[in-house]
Amino acid sequence: AGEDGNGNDNDNDNGNGLAKVAVSEADIQQILTSIVEDGNKIPLSTSIQTALGAFTTLPRKAWAKCREQLIQHSEDNASAMEVMDSALFVLVLDDYAPENIHDAAANMLHGTNNMMRRGGEVGGKGYGYGYGDAKFPSPSMDTDTSSSGVGIGKVAGQFSNLAVSNHGFSNGTGNGTATVGDEAQFSTEYQGGTCCNRWYDKLQIIVCSDGSAGINFEHSAIDGHTALRFASDVYAQTVVSFAKSITKSVYTHGCPIPNIIDAEVLRAAETNKEKKGIIGGRKRELFDTNPKKIDFDIAENLKDTLFHAEATLGDALDADASYVLEFTNFGKNLIVGNKLSPDSVVQMSIILAYYRLYGEIVSSYEPVLTKAFYHGRTEAMRSTTMKAANLCKCWMNRMSTKNDKLNALRDATKYHSKKVKEAIGGNGVDRHLYALKCIGEKNGLPPHEFFKSDAWKALNHTILSTSNCGNPALRLFGFGPVTYDGFGIGYIIKDNGVQYAISSKHRQTRRYAHAIHQTLCEIGELLEPLTSQELGHHRSTHTSKEIAKVLKTAPAASSKKSLTTSGNEDVQFADGWDDTYGDTIQVPPSPQRSVSSSSSSRFPSGSSFVGISRQKTSTRNLIKKVGKKISDRA
Fold first, then answer.
1. Which 8-state DSSP code applies to residue 219?
2. Over the range 178-198, which residues count as b (16 or more CB within 10 Å of their CB) and which as e?
């Protein structure tokens, strides 16, 4: 906090254009630690009953009604909700370590559904909700204790004195402890999953106990690439900070590595001591960075609603099936090397895999960014074109040749790329038609016959909802299906692989992922490899006949090829497809050398890679020491 030269408050920068941060990393650690310690005083079965995040999972109109009742019930509730609304994001700490990548994807998407018994949960493990909340294992196998929520800035978890009953809730007493009384009057089971440790109206940064982290965001407010920018900057700044810590003792006149995020730490704790509450002769409230717990006063008529919201959420989670496919056989490099669009190939793999599994060609959706336009967000690209349909039929036709399949793939991807460019330029149809439909409804006009047609209904019943969003900062990206019988498919295309995060409700998600994997493998078999490498064995002496044979068999005009040597020691080298390292003469493999099991299947047994000797141009002197070939060209 500070003032500019005119005596006005200036909390954004200090005159040099840098943002100011009121807490250091050490301060943040202390804030989080204090919240965790405070939460450990409250039993999980008590704190879970005020998990108001379950309200945010209700249909929007229902949640809006509950929200208004909360605000009208007390001024404290209204003030607390204002703090929640003004927060940039919510930090969520889950005492949950995913067993595998599939569980991690599901937890980041919607949390876990884990019913627990009072006083008998295994390891006392449970989860609760605060304003960004976490629950940590209790120290006893027989007690029900847990930690509190974690908040952003001044905000922390909220808990009230309640205990769950068979019908809903009953009042408790004491400082965060419930007076249960006769145990028979209360339910012995309660929700202990991370699903209650969320606030879905806000962008959420979720961190698990094993350090894995993710972002969950509500789609109506922002698009995927907005969240990606946020995650990318945080990740990149972390890398830059680490790099600077390495080089700070090397560069004496300032580190040349630029920051991704320019900010100055101006600790509020130190500033408060210096100013002592007086600024320019005016009394000013000191900037307090201590965490504050939010306590909501829940009206009686909302207690049952909260309980029912959590139960309904549990049903939704049980219906979901998430599966991750991390394909590593090839990625962007190989696809681009074959003059194909990586995104188009992935889109075709999704459509083709569904046709392979179900024999149906269904509606698919891919958002395309329209950021070139003012206030532009996305346009819909419908990947299920006639070219894609022809590809599916050709690919699954047992009489089709490899050339037939490759040509069909090229036609489909080329047409897909063309339509993507049209959508980017604002020439899509989905948003335009939907806008006309909405305008007609708002003006009380009867719906046009077009919007009642089977074609419109089929187009908007999206079975394959897909999106490409990611970069090296992310391992996965995904979302849920948009129809009850559909798949939600988020994917990230990397240089040497493709990651799919697939979700559906009551469908064979894992089997569909395997169909995509099989399809990608078949596509890979049709693509030309980027390199064709051979190993050669270099010898220091050769007969004149051997040299003459090399000169006779070498291409007449080959500016890229060279005859190489590397001294008198035996050296092996690789021969590339575009940047040639050397021509060799065929000789039996050296009996003293052997190829390790990690070598490529193209490498013959009896040879081992030692090093690469490279020369751009060949001369008469180099010819005298030409290598000998130990493997045939593939």
1. T
2. bebeeeeebbeebbbbbbbbb
CB 94 within 8 Å of CB 127: yes
CA distance 533 to 572: 12
Distance CA 15, CA 55 (A): 43
Alpha-helical segments (H) within 535-581:
544-553
**SS3 at position 254:** coil
Task: Give the chain's mean pLDDT.
Answer: 76
Q: Which two tokens stand for residue 46?
A: 């008590």
Give residue 390's region: left, alpha or beta (phi > 0; psi -120 to 50).
alpha
How far is CA 229 from its chain centroid?
12
Q: Is the pLDDT assigned to residue 515 strictly greater than 70?
A: yes
CB atoms within 10 A of CB 450: 11
E strands, 526-615, in order: 535-537, 572-574
CA distance 335 to 179: 65
Q: Give per-residue pLDDT as tens, 462-476.
A: 999 999 998 888 999
The owner of tokens 């009867």 is 446
Please answer whether residues 123 and 135 qualify as being in contact, where contact means their C-beta atoms are separated by less than 8 angstroms.
Answer: no
Higher pLDDT among residues 178 and 18, named by residue = 18
Give the separation between CA 139 and CA 527, rounded to whole angstroms: 57
422-427, Cβ contacts within 8 angstroms, sequence gap of 24 or more: 423/368, 423/370, 423/379, 423/380, 423/381, 424/368, 424/369, 424/370, 424/372, 424/379, 425/372, 426/370, 426/373, 426/376, 426/379
DSSP category for residue 494:
E
Q: Which residue from 86, 77, 312 is spatially nearest to 196, judged by alpha carbons?
A: 312
Q: Give the integer Cα–Cα distance in Å for 576 and 612.
A: 11
- Report CA torsion sign: 112, 113, 118, 123: negative
Rounded mean pLDDT, 379-388: 96
β-pairing verdict for 378-381 and 628-629? unpaired
Q: Is 174 helix (H, G, I), strand (E, B) or coil?
A: coil
Q: How far apart are CA 414 and CA 345, in angstroms?
A: 10
Separation between Cα atoms, residue 431 and residue 269, nearest integer Å: 51
Contact 130, 150 (CB under 8 A): yes
Average pLDDT (125-147) is 31
Closest C-alpha among 600, 561, 554 to residue 578:
561
Q: How far is Cα 503 from Cα 347, in angstroms, rounded to an integer?
A: 16
Residue type at position 432: H
The pTM assigned to this predicted structure is: 0.71
For the record, the structure tokens of 59 come out as 């249909």
- What residues are paired with 265 via a beta bridge? 21
Sequence-distant (≥ 6) Cβ neighbours of residue 118 within 8 angstroms: 45, 144, 186, 188, 189, 190
- Residues 606/630, Cβ–Cβ less than 8 Å: yes
Question: What is d(CA 476, CA 489) in angstroms, rounded to the nearest whole number?
Answer: 11
CA distances from 593 to 285, 537, 610 (A): 78, 10, 10
DSSP E strands, 195-235: 204-208, 213-216
Is the CA virtual torsion 564, 567, 572, 573 positive or negative?
A: negative
* CB contact at 8 A, 150 and 92: yes
What's the pLDDT tens digit per position in 607-619? Answer: 333 333 333 344 4
Token digits of residue 243: 């790099």
CA 149 from chain center: how many Å? 24
Q: Is-contact 570 537, C-beta < 8 A?
A: yes
- Residue 583: pLDDT over 50: no
